[in-house]
Write a structure and sequence with these properties.
Layout: H1 2-25, E1 38-42, E2 57-65, E3 69-79, E4 86-91, E5 99-106, E6 112-122, E7 127-129, E8 133-137
Antiparallel strand pairs: 1-2, 2-5, 3-4, 3-6, 6-7, 6-8
Length: 138
């Protein structure tokens, strides 16, 4: 009985490895053209409930570019809409990368409605803006 169990375990592992290889081989081809040469998207969902003043919101983003990425900037806008965008922080990849995932922190100091967005730049001088997220701070 133990040899049958060993054969079953080995067969199961082999099958799982085969499925993993087939999945990896059938993945989408990377290196497809990027519209405008650069794109950035936020990987964070807006909070569903109001955030307390002073709480940290981790803003994660992914930038993809046809040429190396220069830097990304996190902007916050506190509504009403007559306010100005405020640069919270700028970060650059350590190496000449065409894909860059960043984690930036935003800590609202006042109650209100906020909009966050990322602007990304590549070394070719192209830029892209993420779709914004908005949330309330109480």
């Amino acid at each position: 009985m133990s040899s049958q169990r060993a054969i079953f375990v080995i067969s199961s592992i082999t099958l799982l490895l085969l499925v993993g290889v087939l999945t990896a081989c059938s993945s989408e081809v990377t290196g497809q053209a990027i519209a405008g040469g650069i794109q950035v998207r936020l990987l964070v969902q807006p909070p569903t409930n109001p955030l307390p003043v002073g709480s940290v919101l981790n803003v994660r983003s992914l930038t993809e570019s046809e040429t190396p990425i220069s830097h990304i900037e996190l902007y916050a806008l506190q509504l009403p809409s007559d306010a100005q965008n405020v640069l919270i922080r700028a970060d650059a990849p350590a190496l000449a990368q065409t894909n860059f995932t960043a984690m930036q922190r935003f800590t609202p100091q006042r109650a209100g409605n906020y909009v966050l967005r990322i602007t990304a730049y590549n070394q070719a001088g192209q830029k892209a803006e993420s779709n914004p997220i908005s949330f309330t701070v109480e």
